[in-house]
Amino acid sequence: MTAETAPLLELRDVGKDYGSVIALDGISTTVRAGEVTCVLGDNGAGKSTLIKILAGVHRADRGQLLLDGRPADFGSPREALDAGIATVYQDLAMIPLMAIWRNFFLGAEPTRGRGPFRRFDAARAKDVTRRELAAMGIDIRDPDQPVGTLSGGERQSVAIARAVHFGARVLILDEPTSALGVKQAGVVLRYVAQARDRGVGVVLITHNPHHAHPVGDRFLVLNRGRSLGSFPKADVSRDELTRLMAGGAELDQLAHELERPAT
Amino acid sequence: MATGAAGEPSTRRADERLTAVGPLRRLLVKPELGALVGAVAVFAFFAVQSEVFRSARGVANWLDPASTLGIMAVAVALLMIGGHFDLSAGVMTGTTALTVAIVAVEFEQNIWVAIGVSLVVALLIGFFNGWLVTRTGLPSFIITLGTFLMLQGLNLGLTKFLTGTVTAGGLASVPGYSSAEWLFASRMTILGAEVRVAVLWWVLFTALATWVLLRTRFGNWVFATGGDEVAARNVGVPARRTTIALFMTTATAAWFVGTTLAVRLTSVQANTGTGQELIYIVAAVIGGCLLTGGFGSAIGASLGALIFGMTQLGIPYLRWDADWFYFFLGAMLLLAVLANRLVRRYAEAARR
């Protein structure tokens, strides 16, 4: 639908080395507003490296990162955040011992007063937290409770709500469903869809094609640091995704090996 | 528009689940609760048995050791919440006290110049500690153990070199002494008892630290840096700057206490402060600080210092052997650690 406008975020032949190891090479894909781009790959495929480049933790060694069609270069997570790229990490998203509202505004605390009397506006922070979570349909009993008392799915959901609140235009989700049960994963995917419907461009990193296929609009499949292609949803089925991820021929080989020997 | 399919079930159910977090649990989650109960118990224990202990003069007496310890314990608690230790904090009170005495007496400077030089020295040491810890990623325990030993050597070596003895003294006759005495070592009469001004400073610093921790951005960053440094950095918290600032805060507290000691006693032993660093940590832990960081309170650390002061003077008031003091302190520490563990488990038991 939005094919004519420039994508929010575009990768062109991006690559990254760690010493002599080529962690990522020749990666190209696009992220559009109101769409979900899924990055699929098995362990060690380079998903984490890709997130870190997008989030400003690492710099790409090769290729280009385009934000709104203009080349971008993030030196720190802060710079990426300021450009509207928010990352929700798998298990590092929250500080467990801190209250929900403190976590929600961590690093971007609203303040009152000036000079030495500048202080954290706690009343507003609690109020906004409660409202934003309710707007996402997230059921939180008490913003004062420590995040550690929330379930994994709730924690992911709070992190997503936080990113959306802070005006994220691109939301990167690192394996948001991997540690969750079936039901909890469904809840998180619903919030992903909700963020998408609010016009956010979502990058969903996962190794589960069953989670990716229903919510994704575009699929980038990685294998051992290289791209196996970036497909729009119309061009690829769930089974094809699964096959691609496992490395196609390798899976056939495995099936062959596991077959019962003919008697 | 944002309320999609997931929106509906929340509102009703949320209410009935809210009752699960009762007022008791809410109270138990407060880190300083254990220390408060402990302080009341210790006070009751000594006050019942000793009339002197509960008299105004007695209270002023045990507030005195609690005050200087408390100022340090509050700073050390902030640092512990931020996820680090400072073993050089004790010996640093000696370094700063010696700097005041030596610069004022041996280099014949106004005492305020000496106090200023001492502050610069403290801030440099604090910055060095923090910078090294954030730069190398090594445990602060080992890095500040290094600075602790280095400072201990410097305190002795430089004092001997500059004064020929292991004491730097003669502060009372230095220009500016009376105004410094007024600020750091004066006494005032409250309810017929002489109270040292350090008690006032202690209360003030505790209030300030509590406000900073709970009501400023920096306070939020301290909790976050201690709770999970990587996560904090990922959401944009300047974790390195926070850590360095905390080490410099501890150093500043050491400077304040060191200056107080120097001005009070007018002469400083070269081994001043050595061994105190663990007492600060004990007070902070009794006050509810977790050794792993990310949780604790300044008021708690102050209460821990109060328990320490009451015990230190209460034992001689009961005419017990003073040797029992350390046994008592160790038992308090163990109790506090166990209580903190229980409280944390109970607080987090809601879902697990």
Structure notes:
The complex is a heterodimer of chains A (263) and B (352). Chain A has helices spanning 47-55, 77-82, 100-104, 122-135, 152-165, 182-197, 209-215, 238-245, 249-258, and strands at residues 9-18, 21-31, 36-41, 62-67, 70-71, 85-88, 111-112, 119-120, 170-174, 201-206, 218-223, 226-232. Chain A is built from nine helices and twelve strands. The radius of gyration of chain A is 20 Å and the shape is globular. The model of chain A has no long low-confidence stretch (mean pLDDT 82). With 263 residues, chain A is of the alpha/beta class. Chain A has a domain at 9-97 and 169-258: Rossmann fold (3-Layer(aba) Sandwich). Chain B has 352 residues and is mainly α. Chain B has one domain (46-348): Orthogonal Bundle (ABC transporter involved in vitamin B12 uptake, BtuC). Helices cover 73% and strands 3% of the residues of chain B. In chain B, the strands form two sheets. In chain B, strands 1-4 form a two-stranded antiparallel sheet. Chain B has a two-stranded antiparallel sheet with strand order 2-3. At the A-B interface, helix 2, strand 8, helix 4 and helix 6 of A face helix 1, helix 10, helix 11 and helix 12 of B. Chain B: It is a multi-pass membrane protein.
**Strand count, sense and closure of the main sheet of chain A?**
6 strands, mixed
The CATH class of chain B is Mainly Alpha
If classified by CATH, what would the architecture of chain B be? Orthogonal Bundle
Rounded radius of gyration of chain A (Å): 20 Å
| Most residues in contact, chain pair and counts | A-B, 48 and 45 residues
CATH fold category name of the domain at 9-97 and 169-258 in chain A: Rossmann fold
Total count of strands of chain A: 12
Model regions low in confidence, pLDDT < 50 over at least 5 residues of chain B:
1-19
End-to-end Cα distance of chain B, whole Å, is 33 Å
Largest sheet of chain B: 2 strands, antiparallel
